[in-house]
Amino acid sequence: MQKLIIKGKKNLFGSIKISGSKNATLPILASTILFKKVSLKNVPMVRDVFTMLELLRYIGFKVKINYKKNSLSISKSNLKLNPIAPYKLVKTMRAGVLVLGPLLSKFKKAKVSLPGGCAIGTRPVDLHLFALKKLGAKIRIKEGYIHASALNGLRGGKINFPSISVGATENAIIAATHAIGKTTLTNCAIEPEIKDLIKFLNKSGSKIKFEGRKIIIEGSVEFKNSNHKIMFDRIEAGTYLIASALIGKKMNLIGIDPKIISEEIRILKKMGVKIRVFQNKVTVFYSPNIKNQNIKTAPYPGFPTDLQAQMMVLMTKAKGISKIKESIFENRFMHVPELKRMGAKIEIKNNIAIVKGPCYLSGAEVMATDLRASVSLVLAGLVAESRTIINRIYHLDRGYENLEKKLLKCKAFVKRV
Ligand code: UD1
User: Taking the model in full, what pTM does it have?
Assistant: First the structure.
Protein backbone atom coordinates (compact mmCIF):
# COMPACT_ATOMS: atom_id res chain seq x y z
CA MET A 1 0.00 0.00 0.00
CA GLN A 2 1.28 3.45 -0.89
CA LYS A 3 2.38 5.95 1.74
CA LEU A 4 3.31 9.59 1.64
CA ILE A 5 6.50 10.73 3.34
CA ILE A 6 6.80 14.41 4.19
CA LYS A 7 9.78 16.21 5.69
CA GLY A 8 8.33 19.24 7.37
CA LYS A 9 9.37 22.84 7.95
CA LYS A 10 10.32 23.53 4.34
CA ASN A 11 8.91 26.91 3.29
CA LEU A 12 6.66 26.82 0.26
CA PHE A 13 7.48 29.22 -2.54
CA GLY A 14 6.07 29.45 -6.05
CA SER A 15 2.79 29.02 -7.92
CA ILE A 16 0.11 26.36 -7.90
CA LYS A 17 -2.39 26.03 -10.72
CA ILE A 18 -5.70 24.97 -9.21
CA SER A 19 -7.37 22.05 -10.99
CA GLY A 20 -10.94 21.70 -12.19
CA SER A 21 -13.55 20.95 -9.55
CA LYS A 22 -14.22 17.32 -8.69
CA ASN A 23 -17.56 18.19 -7.12
CA ALA A 24 -18.67 20.12 -10.23
CA THR A 25 -17.47 17.37 -12.59
CA LEU A 26 -19.42 14.56 -10.90
CA PRO A 27 -22.99 15.91 -11.32
CA ILE A 28 -22.19 17.19 -14.82
CA LEU A 29 -20.97 13.70 -15.74
CA ALA A 30 -24.16 12.19 -14.28
CA SER A 31 -26.23 14.58 -16.42
CA THR A 32 -24.51 13.39 -19.62
CA ILE A 33 -26.85 10.36 -19.46
CA LEU A 34 -29.43 12.72 -21.00
CA PHE A 35 -27.15 13.69 -23.93
CA LYS A 36 -25.93 12.20 -27.22
CA LYS A 37 -22.42 13.59 -26.81
CA VAL A 38 -20.68 15.87 -24.32
CA SER A 39 -17.10 17.20 -24.34
CA LEU A 40 -15.62 18.53 -21.12
CA LYS A 41 -12.46 20.53 -20.41
CA ASN A 42 -10.57 21.27 -17.18
CA VAL A 43 -11.60 17.87 -15.78
CA PRO A 44 -9.52 16.84 -12.75
CA MET A 45 -7.96 13.42 -13.33
CA VAL A 46 -8.81 12.02 -9.88
CA ARG A 47 -10.21 8.70 -8.73
CA ASP A 48 -13.79 9.82 -8.05
CA VAL A 49 -14.02 11.12 -11.61
CA PHE A 50 -12.71 7.79 -12.93
CA THR A 51 -15.29 5.95 -10.81
CA MET A 52 -18.10 8.05 -12.31
CA LEU A 53 -16.73 7.40 -15.81
CA GLU A 54 -16.64 3.68 -15.06
CA LEU A 55 -20.27 3.94 -14.03
CA LEU A 56 -21.15 5.67 -17.31
CA ARG A 57 -19.30 2.92 -19.22
CA TYR A 58 -21.22 0.30 -17.24
CA ILE A 59 -24.49 1.99 -18.24
CA GLY A 60 -23.33 1.81 -21.87
CA PHE A 61 -21.64 5.12 -22.76
CA LYS A 62 -18.37 5.52 -24.65
CA VAL A 63 -15.73 7.53 -22.78
CA LYS A 64 -12.59 9.00 -24.32
CA ILE A 65 -10.07 10.64 -22.01
CA ASN A 66 -7.20 12.93 -22.92
CA TYR A 67 -5.18 12.79 -19.69
CA LYS A 68 -2.63 15.38 -20.76
CA LYS A 69 -5.24 17.96 -21.72
CA ASN A 70 -7.60 17.23 -18.81
CA SER A 71 -10.41 16.78 -21.27
CA LEU A 72 -12.81 14.00 -22.14
CA SER A 73 -15.86 13.13 -24.18
CA ILE A 74 -18.84 10.93 -23.39
CA SER A 75 -21.09 9.66 -26.13
CA LYS A 76 -23.86 7.17 -26.62
CA SER A 77 -22.57 3.85 -27.89
CA ASN A 78 -24.44 1.34 -30.03
CA LEU A 79 -24.92 -0.84 -27.00
CA LYS A 80 -28.31 -1.11 -25.34
CA LEU A 81 -28.18 1.16 -22.32
CA ASN A 82 -28.46 -0.41 -18.91
CA PRO A 83 -30.12 1.83 -16.25
CA ILE A 84 -28.26 0.26 -13.34
CA ALA A 85 -25.62 1.57 -10.94
CA PRO A 86 -24.04 -1.44 -9.21
CA TYR A 87 -22.91 -1.66 -5.59
CA LYS A 88 -19.25 -2.21 -6.50
CA LEU A 89 -19.10 1.32 -7.99
CA VAL A 90 -21.49 3.27 -5.73
CA LYS A 91 -19.94 1.92 -2.51
CA THR A 92 -16.59 3.54 -3.31
CA MET A 93 -18.12 6.90 -4.17
CA ARG A 94 -21.44 8.13 -2.80
CA ALA A 95 -21.87 10.60 -5.66
CA GLY A 96 -22.74 7.51 -7.75
CA VAL A 97 -26.30 8.07 -6.53
CA LEU A 98 -26.39 11.19 -8.75
CA VAL A 99 -27.15 8.96 -11.75
CA LEU A 100 -30.52 8.05 -10.22
CA GLY A 101 -32.34 11.22 -11.36
CA PRO A 102 -31.07 11.23 -14.96
CA LEU A 103 -31.52 7.44 -15.38
CA LEU A 104 -35.08 7.59 -14.12
CA SER A 105 -35.89 10.64 -16.20
CA LYS A 106 -34.55 9.05 -19.37
CA PHE A 107 -35.45 5.36 -18.99
CA LYS A 108 -38.52 5.69 -16.72
CA LYS A 109 -36.85 3.16 -14.46
CA ALA A 110 -33.55 2.76 -12.65
CA LYS A 111 -31.84 0.48 -10.19
CA VAL A 112 -29.14 2.18 -8.13
CA SER A 113 -27.26 0.71 -5.20
CA LEU A 114 -27.72 2.38 -1.83
CA PRO A 115 -24.33 3.87 -1.01
CA GLY A 116 -24.16 2.81 2.64
CA GLY A 117 -22.30 4.72 5.35
CA CYS A 118 -18.88 6.27 5.20
CA ALA A 119 -16.20 7.50 7.57
CA ILE A 120 -17.78 10.93 8.09
CA GLY A 121 -21.27 9.74 8.99
CA THR A 122 -24.34 7.79 7.96
CA ARG A 123 -25.02 10.01 4.91
CA PRO A 124 -28.53 8.89 3.97
CA VAL A 125 -30.13 9.50 0.55
CA ASP A 126 -33.69 10.14 1.78
CA LEU A 127 -33.70 13.70 0.38
CA HIS A 128 -32.78 12.43 -3.10
CA LEU A 129 -35.68 9.97 -2.93
CA PHE A 130 -38.04 12.59 -1.47
CA ALA A 131 -37.35 14.90 -4.44
CA LEU A 132 -37.77 12.20 -7.08
CA LYS A 133 -41.01 11.01 -5.48
CA LYS A 134 -42.35 14.58 -5.78
CA LEU A 135 -41.65 14.29 -9.52
CA GLY A 136 -43.77 11.15 -9.67
CA ALA A 137 -41.28 8.36 -9.06
CA LYS A 138 -42.33 5.16 -7.32
CA ILE A 139 -39.52 3.94 -5.11
CA ARG A 140 -38.87 0.63 -3.46
CA ILE A 141 -35.78 -0.46 -1.53
CA LYS A 142 -34.90 -4.09 -2.04
CA GLU A 143 -31.71 -6.06 -1.44
CA GLY A 144 -29.60 -2.94 -0.94
CA TYR A 145 -30.83 -1.28 -4.13
CA ILE A 146 -33.13 1.66 -4.89
CA HIS A 147 -35.65 0.44 -7.48
CA ALA A 148 -37.25 3.53 -9.02
CA SER A 149 -39.86 3.76 -11.74
CA ALA A 150 -42.07 6.37 -13.40
CA LEU A 151 -43.95 4.45 -16.06
CA ASN A 152 -45.47 7.57 -17.64
CA GLY A 153 -42.31 9.60 -17.23
CA LEU A 154 -41.41 12.10 -14.52
CA ARG A 155 -43.65 15.18 -14.15
CA GLY A 156 -42.60 18.61 -12.94
CA GLY A 157 -43.59 19.48 -9.40
CA LYS A 158 -42.95 21.63 -6.35
CA ILE A 159 -40.22 20.41 -4.03
CA ASN A 160 -39.47 22.15 -0.76
CA PHE A 161 -36.41 20.43 0.70
CA PRO A 162 -36.78 19.89 4.47
CA SER A 163 -33.04 20.46 4.79
CA ILE A 164 -30.29 21.58 2.46
CA SER A 165 -28.51 18.90 0.44
CA VAL A 166 -26.04 19.46 -2.40
CA GLY A 167 -26.50 16.03 -3.98
CA ALA A 168 -30.31 15.95 -3.66
CA THR A 169 -30.55 19.42 -5.26
CA GLU A 170 -28.36 18.23 -8.14
CA ASN A 171 -30.30 15.00 -8.63
CA ALA A 172 -33.59 16.94 -8.69
CA ILE A 173 -32.30 19.59 -11.14
CA ILE A 174 -31.02 17.02 -13.64
CA ALA A 175 -34.15 14.87 -13.43
CA ALA A 176 -36.44 17.90 -13.75
CA THR A 177 -34.83 19.17 -16.98
CA HIS A 178 -36.13 16.07 -18.77
CA ALA A 179 -39.44 15.75 -16.84
CA ILE A 180 -42.68 16.98 -18.36
CA GLY A 181 -43.58 20.50 -17.17
CA LYS A 182 -42.17 23.00 -14.74
CA THR A 183 -40.43 22.20 -11.43
CA THR A 184 -39.85 24.59 -8.56
CA LEU A 185 -37.26 23.72 -5.94
CA THR A 186 -37.09 25.63 -2.67
CA ASN A 187 -34.63 25.49 0.22
CA CYS A 188 -32.02 24.28 -2.27
CA ALA A 189 -28.28 24.07 -1.91
CA ILE A 190 -26.63 26.88 -3.90
CA GLU A 191 -23.04 25.71 -3.93
CA PRO A 192 -20.97 27.13 -6.84
CA GLU A 193 -20.76 23.59 -8.26
CA ILE A 194 -24.57 23.61 -8.59
CA LYS A 195 -24.34 26.90 -10.45
CA ASP A 196 -21.74 25.31 -12.76
CA LEU A 197 -24.16 22.42 -13.42
CA ILE A 198 -26.93 24.93 -14.21
CA LYS A 199 -24.58 26.91 -16.47
CA PHE A 200 -23.77 23.73 -18.40
CA LEU A 201 -27.41 22.63 -18.68
CA ASN A 202 -28.59 26.10 -19.72
CA LYS A 203 -26.05 26.42 -22.48
CA SER A 204 -27.15 22.97 -23.67
CA GLY A 205 -30.79 24.05 -24.09
CA SER A 206 -32.47 23.92 -20.69
CA LYS A 207 -34.16 26.88 -19.03
CA ILE A 208 -33.20 27.00 -15.37
CA LYS A 209 -33.46 30.16 -13.27
CA PHE A 210 -32.42 30.67 -9.70
CA GLU A 211 -33.00 33.30 -7.08
CA GLY A 212 -31.69 32.81 -3.55
CA ARG A 213 -32.48 29.22 -2.55
CA LYS A 214 -35.22 28.85 -5.18
CA ILE A 215 -34.60 27.16 -8.53
CA ILE A 216 -37.16 27.01 -11.37
CA ILE A 217 -36.67 24.44 -14.14
CA GLU A 218 -38.67 24.25 -17.37
CA GLY A 219 -38.77 20.56 -18.28
CA SER A 220 -39.06 18.49 -21.47
CA VAL A 221 -35.60 19.33 -22.79
CA GLU A 222 -34.11 16.93 -25.35
CA PHE A 223 -30.37 17.38 -25.04
CA LYS A 224 -28.12 16.59 -28.02
CA ASN A 225 -24.47 17.63 -28.06
CA SER A 226 -22.71 20.05 -25.75
CA ASN A 227 -19.40 21.12 -24.27
CA HIS A 228 -18.26 22.83 -21.11
CA LYS A 229 -15.20 23.94 -19.17
CA ILE A 230 -15.46 22.82 -15.54
CA MET A 231 -15.03 25.53 -12.87
CA PHE A 232 -11.97 25.54 -10.57
CA ASP A 233 -11.88 23.38 -7.45
CA ARG A 234 -12.62 25.79 -4.58
CA ILE A 235 -11.78 23.15 -1.96
CA GLU A 236 -8.39 22.48 -3.52
CA ALA A 237 -7.85 26.27 -3.66
CA GLY A 238 -8.83 26.57 0.02
CA THR A 239 -6.50 23.71 0.95
CA TYR A 240 -3.50 25.36 -0.71
CA LEU A 241 -4.49 28.74 0.75
CA ILE A 242 -4.26 27.18 4.20
CA ALA A 243 -0.99 25.39 3.31
CA SER A 244 0.42 28.76 2.21
CA ALA A 245 -0.77 30.42 5.42
CA LEU A 246 0.93 27.67 7.43
CA ILE A 247 4.32 27.51 5.77
CA GLY A 248 4.36 29.73 2.67
CA LYS A 249 7.07 32.29 1.94
CA LYS A 250 5.21 33.67 -1.03
CA MET A 251 2.65 31.59 -2.90
CA ASN A 252 0.45 32.30 -5.91
CA LEU A 253 -2.70 30.28 -6.44
CA ILE A 254 -3.75 30.67 -10.03
CA GLY A 255 -6.69 29.74 -12.24
CA ILE A 256 -9.37 30.67 -9.69
CA ASP A 257 -12.19 33.14 -9.19
CA PRO A 258 -11.45 34.65 -5.75
CA LYS A 259 -15.06 35.91 -5.42
CA ILE A 260 -16.22 32.30 -5.04
CA ILE A 261 -13.93 31.74 -2.05
CA SER A 262 -14.48 35.15 -0.46
CA GLU A 263 -15.68 33.70 2.87
CA GLU A 264 -12.53 31.58 3.21
CA ILE A 265 -10.34 34.59 2.30
CA ARG A 266 -12.22 36.81 4.77
CA ILE A 267 -11.69 34.36 7.64
CA LEU A 268 -8.02 33.79 6.82
CA LYS A 269 -7.38 37.54 6.66
CA LYS A 270 -9.09 37.91 10.04
CA MET A 271 -6.68 35.29 11.37
CA GLY A 272 -3.76 37.42 10.24
CA VAL A 273 -2.94 35.70 6.94
CA LYS A 274 -1.55 38.19 4.45
CA ILE A 275 -3.44 37.69 1.19
CA ARG A 276 -3.63 39.85 -1.91
CA VAL A 277 -6.55 39.20 -4.20
CA PHE A 278 -6.33 39.66 -7.99
CA GLN A 279 -8.88 38.90 -10.70
CA ASN A 280 -7.87 35.28 -11.34
CA LYS A 281 -5.37 34.55 -8.60
CA VAL A 282 -4.45 35.18 -4.98
CA THR A 283 -1.01 35.72 -3.49
CA VAL A 284 -0.32 34.60 0.07
CA PHE A 285 2.65 36.14 1.87
CA TYR A 286 4.63 34.89 4.86
CA SER A 287 2.24 35.22 7.83
CA PRO A 288 3.97 34.55 11.16
CA ASN A 289 1.29 35.87 13.52
CA ILE A 290 -1.83 33.72 13.24
CA LYS A 291 -4.73 34.70 15.51
CA ASN A 292 -7.35 32.41 17.00
CA GLN A 293 -10.79 32.27 15.44
CA ASN A 294 -14.16 30.56 15.94
CA ILE A 295 -15.90 29.17 12.88
CA LYS A 296 -18.93 27.10 12.04
CA THR A 297 -19.29 25.02 8.91
CA ALA A 298 -22.43 25.77 6.88
CA PRO A 299 -23.88 25.32 3.41
CA TYR A 300 -22.56 27.80 0.83
CA PRO A 301 -22.02 30.76 1.16
CA GLY A 302 -20.92 29.68 4.66
CA PHE A 303 -17.57 28.12 5.55
CA PRO A 304 -17.30 24.70 3.80
CA THR A 305 -17.22 21.50 5.83
CA ASP A 306 -14.73 20.23 3.24
CA LEU A 307 -12.15 22.71 4.61
CA GLN A 308 -12.83 22.09 8.30
CA ALA A 309 -9.99 19.58 8.83
CA GLN A 310 -7.46 21.76 7.01
CA MET A 311 -8.54 24.83 9.00
CA MET A 312 -8.04 22.90 12.23
CA VAL A 313 -4.34 22.49 11.36
CA LEU A 314 -4.00 26.25 10.95
CA MET A 315 -5.69 26.73 14.32
CA THR A 316 -2.95 24.66 15.99
CA LYS A 317 -0.61 27.48 14.95
CA ALA A 318 -2.88 30.30 16.12
CA LYS A 319 -2.33 32.10 19.39
CA GLY A 320 -5.16 31.29 21.81
CA ILE A 321 -8.20 29.06 21.75
CA SER A 322 -10.07 28.48 18.49
CA LYS A 323 -13.30 26.57 18.04
CA ILE A 324 -14.81 24.83 15.03
CA LYS A 325 -18.44 23.78 15.06
CA GLU A 326 -19.16 21.07 12.48
CA SER A 327 -22.79 21.50 11.54
CA ILE A 328 -23.02 19.42 8.33
CA PHE A 329 -21.71 15.93 9.15
CA GLU A 330 -22.03 14.20 12.50
CA ASN A 331 -18.71 12.37 12.51
CA ARG A 332 -16.23 14.57 10.76
CA PHE A 333 -13.47 14.74 13.36
CA MET A 334 -11.65 11.54 12.39
CA HIS A 335 -8.47 13.53 11.78
CA VAL A 336 -8.37 14.76 15.39
CA PRO A 337 -6.78 11.67 17.04
CA GLU A 338 -4.11 11.64 14.31
CA LEU A 339 -3.40 15.36 14.70
CA LYS A 340 -3.17 14.82 18.47
CA ARG A 341 -0.55 12.14 17.87
CA MET A 342 1.47 14.84 16.12
CA GLY A 343 1.20 17.08 19.18
CA ALA A 344 -1.97 19.10 18.52
CA LYS A 345 -4.02 20.09 21.57
CA ILE A 346 -7.61 19.46 20.52
CA GLU A 347 -10.63 18.56 22.57
CA ILE A 348 -13.97 17.46 21.13
CA LYS A 349 -17.25 18.42 22.81
CA ASN A 350 -20.22 17.12 20.81
CA ASN A 351 -19.86 18.72 17.39
CA ILE A 352 -17.34 21.34 18.49
CA ALA A 353 -13.56 20.99 18.30
CA ILE A 354 -11.61 23.21 20.68
CA VAL A 355 -8.05 23.84 19.55
CA LYS A 356 -5.41 25.24 21.90
CA GLY A 357 -2.63 27.00 20.09
CA PRO A 358 0.03 27.65 19.24
CA CYS A 359 1.45 24.18 19.62
CA TYR A 360 4.48 22.37 18.41
CA LEU A 361 3.73 19.65 15.86
CA SER A 362 6.16 16.81 15.39
CA GLY A 363 6.20 14.28 12.59
CA ALA A 364 4.60 10.88 13.24
CA GLU A 365 3.23 7.88 11.37
CA VAL A 366 -0.46 8.59 10.85
CA MET A 367 -3.44 7.11 9.05
CA ALA A 368 -5.73 8.83 6.56
CA THR A 369 -9.44 8.12 7.07
CA ASP A 370 -11.23 10.16 4.42
CA LEU A 371 -10.41 12.60 1.65
CA ARG A 372 -10.27 15.88 3.58
CA ALA A 373 -8.91 14.30 6.77
CA SER A 374 -6.01 12.94 4.68
CA VAL A 375 -5.10 16.30 3.28
CA SER A 376 -5.19 17.85 6.76
CA LEU A 377 -2.49 15.35 7.74
CA VAL A 378 -0.47 16.44 4.71
CA LEU A 379 -0.74 20.06 5.89
CA ALA A 380 0.25 19.06 9.42
CA GLY A 381 3.21 17.12 7.98
CA LEU A 382 4.35 20.18 6.00
CA VAL A 383 4.53 22.32 9.12
CA ALA A 384 5.71 19.66 11.62
CA GLU A 385 9.24 19.10 12.81
CA SER A 386 10.92 16.01 11.21
CA ARG A 387 9.24 13.27 9.19
CA THR A 388 5.57 12.37 8.80
CA ILE A 389 4.42 9.15 7.18
CA ILE A 390 0.82 9.08 5.98
CA ASN A 391 -0.77 5.68 5.39
CA ARG A 392 -3.87 4.89 3.28
CA ILE A 393 -3.31 7.76 0.88
CA TYR A 394 -5.72 6.27 -1.65
CA HIS A 395 -8.22 8.63 0.03
CA LEU A 396 -6.17 11.60 -1.22
CA ASP A 397 -6.19 10.30 -4.77
CA ARG A 398 -10.00 10.47 -4.79
CA GLY A 399 -9.92 14.24 -4.96
CA TYR A 400 -6.49 15.89 -5.21
CA GLU A 401 -4.89 16.00 -8.64
CA ASN A 402 -1.06 15.86 -8.71
CA LEU A 403 -0.77 16.75 -5.03
CA GLU A 404 2.89 15.75 -4.70
CA LYS A 405 3.88 17.35 -8.00
CA LYS A 406 2.23 20.63 -7.04
CA LEU A 407 3.86 20.69 -3.61
CA LEU A 408 7.28 19.60 -4.92
CA LYS A 409 7.22 22.45 -7.41
CA CYS A 410 6.86 24.80 -4.44
CA LYS A 411 9.90 23.30 -2.68
CA ALA A 412 8.15 20.97 -0.23
CA PHE A 413 9.67 17.57 0.50
CA VAL A 414 6.94 15.05 -0.32
CA LYS A 415 7.53 11.53 -1.57
CA ARG A 416 5.16 8.69 -2.41
CA VAL A 417 6.53 5.23 -1.64
C1 UD1 B 1 -21.49 17.19 -1.18
C2 UD1 B 1 -20.03 17.17 -1.54
C3 UD1 B 1 -19.18 16.95 -0.28
C4 UD1 B 1 -19.53 17.99 0.77
C5 UD1 B 1 -21.03 18.04 1.03
C6 UD1 B 1 -21.44 19.18 1.95
C7 UD1 B 1 -20.01 16.28 -3.79
C8 UD1 B 1 -19.71 15.14 -4.69
N9 UD1 B 1 -19.78 16.09 -2.49
O10 UD1 B 1 -21.81 15.91 -0.65
O11 UD1 B 1 -17.81 17.05 -0.65
O12 UD1 B 1 -18.87 17.67 1.98
O13 UD1 B 1 -21.73 18.23 -0.22
O14 UD1 B 1 -21.00 20.38 1.44
O15 UD1 B 1 -20.41 17.35 -4.23
N16 UD1 B 1 -28.37 14.35 3.94
C17 UD1 B 1 -29.50 13.68 4.37
N18 UD1 B 1 -30.25 13.03 3.42
C19 UD1 B 1 -29.90 13.04 2.10
C20 UD1 B 1 -28.77 13.73 1.68
C21 UD1 B 1 -28.02 14.38 2.64
O22 UD1 B 1 -29.82 13.65 5.54
O23 UD1 B 1 -30.64 12.44 1.29
C24 UD1 B 1 -27.55 15.03 4.96
C25 UD1 B 1 -26.10 14.52 4.99
O26 UD1 B 1 -25.98 13.39 5.81
C27 UD1 B 1 -25.37 15.74 5.53
C28 UD1 B 1 -26.14 16.90 4.93
O29 UD1 B 1 -27.42 16.38 4.56
O30 UD1 B 1 -25.49 15.77 6.93
C31 UD1 B 1 -25.50 17.54 3.72
O32 UD1 B 1 -25.18 16.52 2.77
P33 UD1 B 1 -25.17 16.83 1.21
O34 UD1 B 1 -25.20 18.30 1.01
O35 UD1 B 1 -26.19 16.00 0.56
O36 UD1 B 1 -23.73 16.28 0.81
P37 UD1 B 1 -23.34 15.46 -0.49
O38 UD1 B 1 -24.11 15.96 -1.67
O39 UD1 B 1 -23.32 14.02 -0.20
Answer: 0.97
